Each structure stands twice: as structure tokens, then as C-alpha cells.
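[job 0412] stage=fold_complex status=start
inputs:
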Amino acid sequence: MKLLVPLTPDPRAPLARAHPLAKLGGAAALFLALFLAIDPLTPAIVLAVLLAALPASGLGPGALATRAAPLALAAASIGLFNALFGDGGVAGGVAIGLRLAAIALAGLLSLATIDPTDLADALVEHLHAPPRFAIGTLAALRLLPIFSREWETIGLARRARGIDESSLGDRLRGFAERTLALLVGAIRRATRLATAMDARGFDSGLPRTIARPRAMTLGDGGWLAAAVALALGASGLSVAAGRWQFLLGQ
Amino acid sequence: MVEHGERVLLLGPSGAGKSTLLAGLAGLLARSGAGEAEGTLRTDGSAGIVFQDPDAQLVLARAGDDVAFGLENTGVPAPEIWPRVDAALAAVGFRYGRDRSTAALSGGEKQRLAIAGTLALRPRILLLDEPTANLDPEGAALVRDTLRRVLAAGAMTCVMVEHRVADALELVDRVVVIAAGGGVVADGPPDRVFAARGAALAAAGVWVPGPPPQPPPRRAAPARAAVIEARDLAFAYPGAAAPALDGVGVTIKSGRTLALVGPNGSGKSTLALLLGGLLRPSRGAARDGRGADLARLRARDLVARVGSVFQDPEHQFVTGRVDDEVAIGPLRAGQCAADARRRAGELLERMGLSSLAAANPFTLSGGEKRRLSVATALAAAPPALILDEPTFGQDRRTFGELLALLAAFRDEGGALCVASHDALLVEALADERLALVAGRGAAR
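[job 0412] stage=fold_complex status=done
writing structure:
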């Protein structure tokens, strides 16, 4: 449940300051390039450049490692499985592992550096998302660290009631019961929050204004352009080297 | 009928409809649709409302953004928003900048920010639904200070629901008492209302000004044996910069009450968890009278050595029925089903919960949940009972009942330990006090 607590990048880092939509657009371009190519070279280039760009993200190495570790492990184990049992042999396994790792890192860099408030603002301002959805999600997000704390407390309280959670079976049953206890509290709290939001005029039908308008700047465009250039460049280099392989090719 | 500029304290027993009336004044009932409505409610001008849970009122991650939230919703033009945000933050005496993370604020500061978010909308009527009920004494003082400042500044009308009446009296000039089933029972200046209705209100659970409930006279206690003993305890939460507790020694004796006191974050709750064998200390150990390390016991053995009562009773409910909830401790401790049932029946009788035996614990009232949580901790007959903020948010009647229960446990030779901010509780029960400051024992 610790994974529910959002990462907080250093707000002064260049990537952290970039417009959320530039980051989402850039990630989409990279996802597309990584999705279409199944050779190892394209993801290897993307991965190398993204790793070099890590310091610009403003994410602390410790926080980054905790989030990246499970993703890296998943990519490595899927790659290994495919190397051992897949049709493509070792080369196929390496390609799949690299591809997954590059997709995971692109996702982590773009999503983890987006401030949720900025994202909701941008969705409402530029993409005309309904505030009820965007701001509502934001409000719910604020409750996650509270739920994370309550999860721990519920675990201790269960021990106080004489419930052991040492065996695997106990723990699985415990998980279901803890989730239920957490949900009861969560729904109650969320209802109270919704009432408090109502009381401050949320979703009352009046036209809403935006307190933090934010235009796309040249720098934001630069990040988007850099990501698109990386997607095109990696694919282009791979094609030039004669290694590029299309997803649906032979 | 409330005039402009009046400051009204709304009182009544739980379930009288105080919060519903406030929600109605705030215009929050019209859309819900459920229930029956009768009569009319008219307000002249807009009303803003502040609720009791500091964690369920703030919407955004940064303080300034949160105050701006209501202004955005009501369509205030963008250039006007930030001056109004700054004015509201100044009006409540908010000590940090607009960029302050709302998650990093104390409970009292969160409530202060919620008041600013309401004031920014320039309501003519300020409604307060137990704004200090979820706060520790420092937080409550902070909110009262904020309200004093805000009410002194303008001619705003204010209607407040507050259980701890003595603390609210300085802020109001009129008291209205309503009863369950509807109707105003008393209305007028505070002195006159309390002179006429004080005793009845106290009996209904309202914290009227005057002497607090007292525990029953103490019976002679048996010999004092150490039931839980801890030497040089230390504990650090994972990822925390400083240990929550460092080098604390405690003895809990039969027939005695030890109070753990100290400000928020001083380590009271952590110490209570360690003494209850729920957390494993990073140094030292909490041991029972026979020398067993409580943190290493299996949970089913632990329940017969020490009972723990958490601040929020709901965290420790694990079944769907009140009687099952009490029986589970004895069952886990190895008693047969018939014995566990009998024990549960006895305890429910003593707690006044027999009629609710088949109810779902989550549906009980606040006071009933509190009594049930004490019953569950006592069910496996442990020699020691540890409670974390047991009187938090409780009305006067539950407070009195709890005092009587705990005093009876102690007089029967039970060893009692309470971690609490509540000066009334500590005053009434404590034989010894351990004051904690930043994770260290300060004085006994």
C-alpha cells in the first residue's frame, strides 16, 4: 500500500516544470515508436537516452529505485522467460525485455513528474475535460496517503484482536478483511469530502473559472519536440542500421 | 429566527438533528432527496459551512489552491481570485505561504485553512459543525483563536454546533437547544439557558460548563505487581529521520493507572503500540509479568496478556455482529465456543449493549462503538489494558460511562495505561504520569 503514496519530484527540475500535456504527448510518441518496433536496437536507443535524461526529472534516486525496481524486475523476468521458451530465442527475449523496460521508464518519467494538480488544470483548460471528473479525481487522490496510513493501523488493530497473519492463508484472508475495513472508512470519508466540496460550490452548474491558467511555452514545446525526435531518431537509426523490425512484419 | 450579526450556539443530544439543520442552512439538503421534509427554511444571503473532519475538507494539494477552489467554482474572474485568497489567508492568520502542502499541516492548521476557503467566498452566514471535535487541545485552541479573530473583524452571522460548550461560549451571544423529534427546547443568553436546562443537557451528553463527571470512589486496590515492564525502548518508523521513541522505560502495575501525556508527535501512540505488543521495538522489549516479550507472542496468546483499544474503534472491528466481535478474543485465546459466548453476553450486559448484540458494529453510534471496543479488549480477560485517546470526540455521557468502566477494571486489580491529550481523563484516573517530549520520557 506504500505504492499509493505519490512520488514528489524536485519542483525546480526542468522536466518537473514542463507542461503536463507536453509530457503526456512526448510519452505517447515514445510509446508508439516502442510499440511498433520489435527489434532490440530501437528500445535500446530510447532506453539509453531516457537514462541519460533521468537527472532532469528531479526524482530522488531512492524514490526512483523503489518504483523502478518492480518494473525492471518484471521486464527482466518476462525477457528471460521469452529467451528460454519463446520462438525468438535469446535475441527475442532481449528485445522484449528492452522494449518493456523502455516503455516502463518512459511512463515513469512522464507520469511521475506530473503534478496531479497541474494535470487536472491542464485537462480542464486545454482538453476541456469535465471538472467534475478531473477535480473529483484530484480530491480522491489526496485521500490515498491517508488510506495508506489506515491500512497499517488496521493491521496492528487486527493483531490486537488476536488475529495472526503469519501463514499465507491467514494473510490472504486478512487482506480481504483489511480491504473491507479500509473501504468502509474510505467511503464514509469520501462522502464527507464530497459534501464539503458541494458546500464550496463545486459542480453547481455555474461556469467555472481557472485560477492557474497556463499556456504552453516554447520550452514545453521543446520537451515535446525532443520526445518526438527521440522516437523518430531511434526508429530511423534502427532502420538505417537495417535492424528495424515492424510489429506485424515477418 | 436568527438576526444578522448574531452568534448562535446550537445544542442538543446526539441525534437531535443539529448537523442536519446546519446542512439545511448551508443549502446542502435540497439535492439529496431522501427523507421527509416539513416546514421552511429561509436564509438571507449566502452561507458557508465548515465541518469537523480536517482530512475530508481540503481538496487540493497546495494551501492557496485550496482556498481558490471555491472561487473557481463560483466563477470569480481569475484576476480577482488571488487577492481574495491572500486576504482570506491573512484573515485567519495562516502562517505559511500559498505553496504550503496541505498534507503537511497539523489538524488545527487544516481547519484554519478550511475556514479561509469558506471566508474567501464572502458568506454572510458562517456555519460551523463541530469544527474542533477532531482536534487535539492545541489544534482546538488554534481554531478558536481563528474564529475569535474572524468574528471580531466583521458583522458576520454565525451558527455553531459544538460539544465542548465551555470552550465555545466566549464566541457566542445566544444559545439554542433543540430536542430529538424536533422543536426548540430553550433559547436565550448562555447563562439563562444553562441555569434553566444545564442538568438536562448534561444528562443528554452535552458538555455544559461546570464540573466534569467523576469516577466512582476508589475501592482498596490489591497488591501492586508489575504487569508490563519495558526498559530502554526505542522505535523508528521506516523512512523517518528521527526515532519516534528513544530510551523510554515504563512499568504498568496492577490496580494502578499510568497516563502517557505529551503533545502531538511526542510518541504517546507509538509507546502505547509497543506496550501492547503490536509493534516490534528497534531496541529494548516490553515484557509481561512472566518475562515474555509481548512483541514476539502470537496474536492469539497476546490477547490474554494485554488488551489494546485504538483511537478509532472502527479500525479494530473484524466481524459483522456485535456479539461475535466480543466473542472473537476468547475464541482466539483458546476458550470453547460456549464459554466465549457466555463471556460476550456478560460483557455486553455490563456495557449496556445487549440489545444491539445482532447489530453490525459499524452501524453503532460513536459512544456505543467506543464501549464495544473496550469490551472486545477486555473479552479475553487480560491483566492489562492500554487505551489510545479513548475519550476523543466523545460526549459527556460516554465520557462518564468510560470513566466508570475503567475505574472498575482498575479496582478489580487490572493494570491500566492511557495515552491521552484529555486533561479531564488524566486528572480523573492517573496515579502516575509519563510526560513524553520528542520521543523521550521527560518526567514522572
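[job 0412] summary: The two ends of chain A are 43 Å apart (CA to CA).
[job 0412] exit 0
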